[in-house]
Design brief:
With about 400 residues, the protein is mainly beta. The chain has a 22-stranded parallel beta sheet that branches. It has a 14-stranded parallel beta sheet with strand order 1-3-6-9-11-13-15-17-20-23-26-29-32-35, with no helix packed on it. It has a four-stranded antiparallel beta sheet with strand order 40-39-42-43.
Length: about 400
């Protein structure tokens, strides 16, 4: 993408030139072939350009005023070294665009009404994907304004600007460091990270295939608001603030709260502990109005009150011993010990344990805070914190 930045900067003085007129395609062909155009010339950035045929972009082009792809038009890049950018003005697509590297500069606009594909898309201006638009990209970096009313499909989306989803946005990984509002449906196959402000509106749905993380570098400024539904197929980790009044969280595996739960939303962990709050690891603050799902079944609610666990030394730099007391092994009862990092990822697991003490070594564990839990008969009965130096 660095070459694309350089390409855009080369047109920094473009706004000082006057628009020279409009050039329209008259035949299929290459951009640099004069016979492709009604002017029998090659369009430059100083013209309004209209593409009504299949045109192959065989040279870098920066839109200075306007580029319009008609309903029967196609603009396709000839190779990965070709860049297309909107430095100023607008690109309106009513047909098909297929390029490798694309950018909209600050003050510039892409309006997509049909099919737009770009391997890499850098948006520092305004992206309007209309209700009839479908935008596909491998990498979408938004530091400007993103408005989606159609369908966006991307591998990685990084938002440091302002984003709004009103229809369907699908991704593999998403990181939000700006402001993002979801009014409809967002589907992620792997990880989602919020490091600033994200609002999942009433009636909206956010589906995460792997891990959900709400944390970043600046404490107190990271807020995930949920009044819709958030489904997480693996782990949930909150290091700052989660808030909402009517929202639902559904977490399939591990849940960790290091920050704040604010409001009256519902939280459902499919593998909850035996005691409130029904979150696997909680060392944060949870408002009294938070509710939990009704799927919890506790066969022996007093189990957790019997067990005593001591970790020594804690913190540790080489090896620690976990001493577990008051488990009745005479009834063939076993337990499972699991250790997780701050993101909810399992880093150590011992199953079918019947000894009163187990040892863990630092090994490949990085310095930091870890959480452990003890499970008996598929129910968490104890959890705690271990610090590795």
């Amino acid at each position: 993408m660095r070459k694309l930045f350089t390409f855009i900067l080369a047109f920094a003085s473009l706004a000082s030139f006057a628009q020279l007129g409009t050039i329209t395609s008259v035949a299929n062909g290459n951009w640099k072939t004069p016979a492709t155009w009604d002017c029998n010339c090659v369009p430059t950035s100083l013209y309004n350009v209209v593409v009504n045929h299949t045109v192959t972009l065989d040279t870098n082009h920066a839109v200075g005023f306007s580029l319009t792809i008609g309903s029967a038009g196609t603009l396709q890049a000839s190779s990965p070294t070709i860049n297309l950018a909107v430095y100023s003005g607008t690109l309106t697509n009513n047909g098909t665009v297929s390029v490798y590297n694309f950018a909209t500069n600050s003050g510039a606009t892409l309006t997509n009404n049909k099919t737009f594909g770009a391997l890499n898309y850098l948006n520092d201006g305004t992206l309007n994907n209309s209700s009839t638009g479908e935008l596909m990209t491998n990498s979408l970096a938004n530091s400007g304004i993103l408005n989606n009313s159609g369908i966006i499909t991307t591998t990685d989306i990084h938002n440091s600007g302002s984003g709004t989803n009103n229809n369907i946005l699908s991704f593999v990984n998403m990181t939000n460091r700006g402001v993002f509002n979801n009014f409809s449906e967002m589907n992620g196959t792997v990880d989602f990270t919020n490091a600033n402000l994200f609002d999942n509106k009433s009636g909206a749905e956010l589906n995460i295939g792997n891990n959900f993380s709400n944390m970043g570098c600046i404490d107190g400024s990271i807020i995930f608001t949920n009044n819709g539904t958030v489904n997480i197929n693996n782990n949930f980790a909150n290091g700052d603030s989660i808030q909402g009044t009517t929202g639902n969280f559904n977490v399939k595996m591990n849940s960790i709260n290091l920050g704040f739960f604010i409001g009256t939303f519902n939280f459902c962990d499919s593998t909850p502990p035996l005691f409130t709050p029904y979150i696997d690891m909680n060392i944060g603050n949870i408002a009294t109005g938070i509710t939990y799902c009704n799927t919890l079944k506790v066969n022996n609610p007093d189990e957790s009150n019997k067990i005593e666990v001591h970790v020594f030394p804690n913190p540790f730099s080489d090896q620690a011993t976990i001493s577990i007391r008051n488990i009745d092994f005479s009834s063939s009862k076993t337990y499972k010990f699991e250790l997780f990092d701050i993101n909810g990822k399992s880093v150590l697991s011992h199953a079918n344990c019947q000894q009163n003490e187990i040892s863990i070594s630092k090994g490949n564990l990085r310095p930091g805070t870890y959480f452990y839990r003890i499970i008996i008969k598929n129910k968490q009965v104890y959890n705690g914190k271990i610090i590795v130096q």
